[in-house]
Amino acid sequence: MDRIEYLKSLRQYWIINTVPNISDVNVKFLRDLIKISNTKNMLEIWTANWFSAINFWIELEKVWWKLLTIDFSPKSHEEAKINIKNVWLLDTVYLVLWNALDEIPKLLDNSYDFIFIDGMMRRSKDFLELSLPKLKKWWIIIIDDVIKFKDKMIWLREFIEENNIEYNVLPIDLDDWVMMIVKEL
Which residue ranges form the domains of the chain, and what is each CATH number? Predict the structure, then answer.
């Protein structure tokens, strides 16, 4: 089965089993953003069963790239390992099973040009704060579900306001909106 067909089967699996993955509309937006931004080093914080990461990889494989995903769920981690193996990415991507709050500080500073935050919404502020030193001079951060879970993201909004971080909230799909923070050269 090729990767596109495999993604279709993953989508069906997560619909049936209510796995929290990003929508197809969100996938299209993020893949387009990866493509036009010429992203080479990406960090994904929380990956579920790797549906999003495989989609990101389709764009990242076109350039010299690196993709690191961090997830805390042993069940998700095991599903992701199977999915990585099934799409022949076992030796080309990095999947970390651990708490992102512990792992992000271990990453090299100035290493990533794109970070996608999609999990434990009440800790989004902490993920953002820890991620900022890990970014290159030009970068993009996308934080998912900022309307649906706005009550859990109060500290994120306070942090952004206190630090005068400019952002946009974009209506990508009917399910929810994303926050986009971009630093230009």
Answer: 3-183 (3.40.50.150)
Return d(Cα 69, Cα 158) in angstroms, integer.
Answer: 26
Whole-model pTM? 0.88
Provide the total of helices (H) and of strands (E) in the chain, helices listed first: 7, 7
Size of the chain, expressed as the number of residues it contains: 185
Six token digits for residue 53:
């990461």
Q: Which residues pair with 41 in a beta bridge?
A: 66
Q: What is the pLDDT of residues 5-38, one digit of tens each?
A: 877 887 777 778 776 777 888 889 999 999 999 8
Other CB atoms closer than 10 Å to residue 116's CB: what's the count?
A: 26
The structure tokens listed for 93 are 């991507």
Q: Provide the token pair at 155.
A: 């500290």
Scanning the structure block, which residue is given the tokens 């996308």? 142
Q: Render pLDDT for 48-86 as a digit per residue (tens, 0 to 9).
A: 667 787 788 888 877 767 788 888 878 777 777 777 777
Residue 16 pLDDT? 81
DSSP codes, 45-76 = E--TTSHHHHHHHHHHTTSS-EEEEEE--HHH
